[in-house]
Amino acid sequence: MSEARSDSVLATRNLVRRFGGIVATNDVTFSLPSGARHALIGPNGAGKTTFVNLLSGVLSPTSGQVFLGGQDVSAWPVYRRARAGLSRTFQINQLFADFTPLETIGLALSEAHAEGAEFWRRAGTSRAVVDEAVAILEQLDLGDVMERRVGSLPYGKQRLLEIAIAVAPRPKVLLLDEPAAGVPEGEREQILEIIEALPKEMALVLIEHDMDLVFRFAKTISVLVQGALFVEGPASEVARDPRVRQVYLGESEVEHHLGAPQGAGKGGAA
Amino acid sequence: MIDTAVHASHGGESRAMAYFRERAKWRWPEVALWVAAFALAFVLPRHALLFNEIVIWALFALSLDIVLGYAGIVSLGHGAFFGLGAYVAGLLAKAGAGAGLLSDPTFGLLASAIVCGIVGYITSFLVLRGADLTRLMVTLGVALIFGELANRMAWLTGGADGLQGVMPGKILGVVEFNFMHPEYAYLYSLSVLFVLFIVARKVIHSPFGVSLRAIKGNALRAGAIGINVNRRLNGAYTMGAAYAGVAGALLAQTTAFVSLDVLDFHRSADVMLIVIFGGVGTLYGAIVGAAAFKVLYDLLAAATPQYWPFWLGLILVLLVLFVRGGIMGLLTSVYARLTGKGDAA
User: Fold this and answer.
1) For labeling, which of A85, B88, B209, B337 is most exposed (least CB within 10 Å)?
2) CA-nearest residue of chain A to B201?
3) Separation CA B60–CA A165 (nearest Å)
4) Helices A101-112 and B207-217: angle between axes, nearest 10 degrees
5) Which of B10, B47, B108, B29 is closest to B287 using CA atoms?
6) CB within 8 A of B199, min separation 6: which ones?
């Protein structure tokens, strides 16, 4: 497992996942340097979410390996990868409806501080955890709702909490699965700003359909098509790649962002 | 940056920390309930036998609430631990023949808790292997095995005749059970319930307890923030098993008898009804559920000796269909109206 794994925080080698006859992830070899600002794009059904599920351990691969900080974590369950510094958000909010945001982040932090199994102490008595939770909630514009029931919060706030819970343990790698999905146009800017303000050393992978977000955020891009890595490289190169335009991008979108030469566009973003 | 307003405090406690303390605070209805429960021994000593039975059901229901209401494991075989605890305490009391450590009821409780805790811990791995339906079957299967073992091992358990010669000694070497004074037994059981309830309440409000609620709320997210879901559930199931064992031990000691009935399936089913009746995942639901269930049962059985199961069933169906969260659901909404605040307990 030698080459180039040491400088990457997250990597895969020949990763394959089949569902019956369908190959959802097809021989993906991929490497993410520390502090990356990477976007994973591809048309619907390209296997983006399957890939994220393989990385985070929600699914186990049919074959191939996942490496976290150079260590083979292919057989590790979700919680072990999370403890090792791999955090993620979900396309559909995965929150605790009956908790308040303060309890939610407090819980995430007490797990990160390895205090989560303590049973003879009231929750909320660890000053470090509570202070940090409040700080994170305020940073993510959740300070004013932190004592309200999560299930009763507006969708935009829940979406912010979905990011907050993933960011709270200060992961080395953060996978953002369509963080702006379903968020009204006016609130997308806020989500992007929050993502841009994340610590530089945290490697970020953004799975996103919104090309505005992708091109503002990403320094590097991978394009998945039918489960396989189709093109990979710096954002500007990927955007200019004619093959990418053909299969995915919708030329007018790309021109809009990069002033690419005129061409016959076939429609908007996927 | 955290601004200083958040730190506005008494005794160095931040506002957010005060929020957590407030959530776990004792509320007056809780205090009132316990005061009333202890007062019953002196106000209505004639009914102490019934109260004692209620308390034992309440502790048994509390143990299931930990498993079902907090760990989210649906068990149809929780009676296995109740029965095992009853036999452990019964056999110890028999072996001690009314004197010495073996016959000391508190020692019997401890032994039952330990044995059931160990068995619970081991079986929790079997239970947690599957999804909901599998878990249901495993719990049911384990209970059936226990029932049949007790039946076959008649040399030890007395088989169908029941365990004879159970002679619990003095409680802590001081107070003796006295069948002329059933309120002694009631006070003994109630004290045990009270102590174990406080322990359970403390655990539920601990980081461990919060993580159980999180797992029940969303196991996928719980795993994604680094919670070893199964390990936590092993712990909760073990605790529930130990509590159930103590409940069984109380029955053996206060009735000085153990029969195969302690391992009967209906016990596992009834305790499930009580928890649902009272309110799942509320702790207090176990107590009010047990009280309501037993009182209702007695009233109906007296009023319509032949048709009481029909009426009991009807009431249960109506309650489950139309009242969210059982009796505790009702009570908490009343309490919220009274105080103009959010949820109690």
Assistant:
1) B337
2) A122
3) 36
4) 110
5) B29
6) none
Average pLDDT over residues A76-84: 96
CA dist., res. A164 & res. A150, Å (int): 13
CA distances (Å), B289 to each of B29, B51, B270, B295, in order? Answer: 16, 13, 11, 10
Helix/strand/coil for A94: coil
Please tell me the distance from the alpha carbon of residue A104 to that of residue B17, in angstroms, as a whole number.
14
| Per-residue pLDDT, B266 | 92
Nearest-by-Cβ selection for B17 from A112, A120, A127: A127
> Residue A208 and residue A128: Cα distance in Å, rounded?
34
Question: In angstroms, how far is CA B228 from the centroid of its own chain?
Answer: 25
The interface pTM score, or ipTM, of the predicted complex is: 0.88
Q: What's the pTM?
A: 0.90
A contacts of B19 (beta carbons < 8 Å): 102, 124, 147
Q: Mean pLDDT over residues B93-119, rounded?
A: 90
pLDDT for B213 beyond 90: yes
Q: Do A119 and B209 touch (CB under 8 A)?
A: yes
**Edge-first strand listing for the sheet containing A22-33:** A22-33, A8-19, A63-68, A71-72
HEC string for B101-164: HHHCHHHHHHHHHHHHHHHHHHHHHHHCCCCHHHHHHHHHHHHHHHHHHHHHCHHHHCHHHCEC
Which segments of chain B does DSSP mark as H helices, in order? 4-7, 15-24, 28-43, 48-64, 79-96, 100-103, 105-127, 132-152, 154-157, 182-204, 207-217, 219-224, 229-255, 265-278, 284-303, 308-322, 326-339
B26 alpha-carbon distance from chain centroid: 20
Q: Which two tokens stand for residue B112?
A: 């039952």
pLDDT of A1: 40
Q: In 10 A of CB B41, how many CB atoms?
A: 20
Does the distance separating the beta carbons of A99 and B225 come in below 8 Å?
A: no
> B342 vs B133, which has greater pLDDT?
B133
Residue of B nearest to A117 (CA): B208
> pLDDT of A16-56, one tens digit each?
999 998 999 999 999 999 999 999 998 888 899 999 999 99
CB contact under 8 Å between B211 and A87, yes or no, is no
Residue A233, amino acid: G
Residues 52-81 of A with CB under 8 A from B: 56, 58, 77-80
Cβ contact, residue pair B214, A99, below 8 Å: yes
Q: Which residues of B touch A (CB under 8 A)?
A: 1-2, 6, 14, 16-17, 19-21, 23-24, 202-203, 205-211, 213-214, 217-218, 220-221, 223-229, 231-232, 235
pLDDT tens digits, residue range B113-129? 999 999 999 999 999 99
Give the strands of the sheet with A37-41, arranged side by side: A86-89, A173-177, A203-207, A37-41, A220-225, A228-234
- In the three-class reduction of DSSP (H, G, I as helix; E, B as strand; rest coil), residue A222 is classed as strand
Query: Which residue matches tokens 């406690």?
Result: B13
